[in-house]
Amino acid sequence: MKKNSKNNKEKTRQRALQAKSRKMKLTVGIDLGDEWSHCCFLGEEGEIVEECRVKTTREAVKSRFGELKLAVIALEVGTHSRWVSQMLSEFGHEVIVANARELRAITGSDRKSDRVDAEKLARYARVDRRILRPIKHRGEEAQVDLVVIRARGVLVKTRTQLVNSVRGVVKSFGYRMPNCSTERFVKLNNEVPEKLREHLAGLMEVLEHVQKQIEEYDQRVEKLAKEKYPETTVLRQIWGVGEITSVSYVLTIEDKGRFEKSRDVGPYLGLRPRRSQSSESDPELGITKAGDCFLRSLLVECAQRILSKKGPDTALKQFGLRIEARGKKKAKKRAIVAVARKLAVLLHKLWVTGEVYEPFPETTVRKAA
């Protein structure tokens, strides 16, 4: 009886607060958690109207915010931010998804807690939403198509781990497996030493199955590129850029008009050097690594191919080789990142203009002149 009485009182309190919130302009901060999310409701004068916890489920979010008067709601980007922000927008609320990397006052606070974080999000949104450096989530359709590429990436990592495990076991017995690609390694069951063949048979079988799954995903990506995203053909004009990278690029950026200038793509993908300038001190730092890490890794792989001996001579390759030739510490790594950044910009330029890719654009301009 006592438990039911408490539940009834809580429901009555919630209804009273919801009725009150419908009459005033609200700003809400939500600190999203995996199981529970903390909410802070601010009134017109910045006073705390309510603080509560909501389960991070579709049903709970709908129950709490579905009938709430239209409000400005701020939340941090994270695992649940895409679907939560989408639901809240469908209810008519104005949703701000904050860039967690820019919120040092929250992530670096010495009194950090879910309740405090929710209040800070609400207050920042109320004062000036630009402080939160809002981000825009990609659409659900693009997110679903990206699952195909991400799932393939998991299988590729699994295949690499299996191959390394087999090689390591064989090497510990004084033998070595032949040097070959991971695709060909699947067929080297007879190359495993006889005394180990039976014990490693299970790993080789799993490896073969994983390889077949990867090939199936490759076919799905190829189908996506040809039938659903034909604009990726323009991006694949550059040697070293295939279906995986081109489709990932289009799906991650989604809207080619979101950038005023193509060179803004580099910082968006975290390929811009960090900066910590103060007075006369301005040290060289690594890249920010902001944005989508999966696409960034694909662009770095493409840059490595472009700079390899197999890569044809292009202005992009020469640009990277000049940086590598400077001979400074970590010059090769810097060259790869620089080429990846320039490649990201070039891909966006081709996507926007639809032009034919010129390996040496300056030479072409001179000839035209």
Write the layout of secondary structure elements.
Elements: H1 2-21, E1 27-31, E2 36-42, E3 48-55, H2 58-65, E4 72-76, H3 81-90, E5 94-98, H4 104-107, H5 114-127, H6 140-172, H7 182-185, H8 194-228, H9 232-235, H10 243-253, H11 265-268, H12 293-307, H13 315-324, H14 331-353, H15 361-368
Parallel strand pairs: 1-4, 4-5
Antiparallel strand pairs: 1-2, 2-3
Helix pairs in contact: 6-8, 6-10, 8-10, 10-12, 12-14, 13-14
Explain the overall architecture.
The chain is α/β, with parallel strands linked by helices. The chain has three domains: 2-132, Nucleotidyltransferase, domain 5, CATH 3.30.420; 140-228; 232-276 and 284-369, no CATH class. 55% of the residues lie in helices and 8% in strands. The chain has helices at residues 2-21, 58-65, 81-90, 104-107, 114-127, 140-172, 182-185, 194-228, 232-235, 243-253, 265-268, 293-307, 315-324, 331-353, 361-368, and strands at 27-31, 36-42, 48-55, 72-76, 94-98. It has a five-stranded mixed β-sheet with strand order 3-2-1-4-5. Helix 6 (140-172) packs across helix 10, helix 8 crosses helix 10 and helix 12 crosses helix 14 (331-353). The radius of gyration is 26 Å and the shape is globular.
